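Write out the 3D structure for:
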Amino acid sequence: MASHLPVTEGLDPFQLDIPNDNDKSVSDTIQELQKVQLSHQWDPNLPQERIDAINEAVKTGDQEKAAELEKALAQESQYESVRAAVRNTDGGEVANTVRAWVLGMFFTTLGSGLNMFLSMRSPAISFPAIVVQLLVYPMGCLWAKTMPTRNFNTFGVEWTLNTGPFTIKEHAVITIMANVSIGYAYCTDALLALKAKPLYNMELGWGFQLLFALSSQVVGMSLAGIFRRFLVWPAAMMWPSQFANTSLFYALHDWSSSDESETHGWSISRYRYFLYVTLGAFVWYWIPGVLWQGLSVFAFVTWIRPNNVVLNQLFGGFTGLSLIPITFDWTYVSAYLGDPLLAPVHALVNTFIGLVVFVIITTIGISYSGALYSAYLPINTSSTYDNTQNAYNVTKILGSGFSFDEEKYKAYSPMFLAPTFALNYGLSFAALTAAIVHVILFHRKQIWHQFRASREQEPDIHLTMMKKYKEAPD
């Protein structure tokens, strides 16, 4: 069975090797607080009252207040969302086990294969790491109950198939393995285009495809390791999408009832609450998924005049702009937005404004002005067309060695794109340039400071606890 208690026991912040305030001079304490002040001066997530308290302590040189703030910084996260989802204790459970490696490799292989296959579906169905996190829990518990606990010795290394209860850290290791590689590699999009019969129809061979995928993935892994001191270690680097995983870990491994004083009277355990929500979601999906599929894309406005072209262009759910985007099917939401429940409100508002200004208004302007030959094209489609309104045949513009042949292109046809598809490409290229310019204009000082301070991060409870483990080299 799984371990349910150690997640709240073990190493706590009061057992950590935190410097004694009495051993510090006034200047040392204020200096440490100044580092925190400098690191968080651009932090939009730190509560304003905390920022004001730090600024006041530094300005007045109040030793007692500075020591109190520094101690608080070292013993708990300063972010409410982090405190709610990630505990500041370390139970010291076993993590590097045969069980973790076997289950991790199995689910990584299964998940990445399924994601590659399901990516061809419309709407695409993803197999996220949180599904692995759910499925591996009963398998880990079953392994703990059935596998032998005998110890083996191989070349001087002692190991066992069963170290005891399935721990939260083993669970985390498996989920991390899946999270890193469960999504299909971006290079497969290029491989699909090269191999697709309507496009290039090239036979590349499995060797090239394997090396192409491995090389691109290894580059990404290397960059992730190099930049972890900038994107993982600082306390201000919050990744809200991971809070669902951490909360689920505690829900599955900690079956204790909630403290009513901290949950506004709720006494139900995380595990029981999770089971109720899961059961409800399972039952509900049969309605939009099977019984009434019209709930998946609830374009009720088009029911008024089904044959009206303009009405369908503006409010249609598949080939229109869906100006009233209502859906009762969560797969349609998560297929394109990931999990919007975990994103900060300001990020969602920013996305919505960009959608309205740069996509909806612009698309309407292009379509009803006749620009880009839009009068002859659907308003919203990812298909490409030639000058006869048929699907564009790429092979007609290719020369020897699958290179672009300008003469064949002129003899055949230009490529015509629907307004939304043309904007998709244009805005994608514009966003790359805009992101670089925006960062230089508004965040250059913050990035330069983080680069210089990367070797000496400000005190943070989770970074402090991680330091007791051996760090991977850069």
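Residues 3-10 have pLDDT under 50 and may be disordered.
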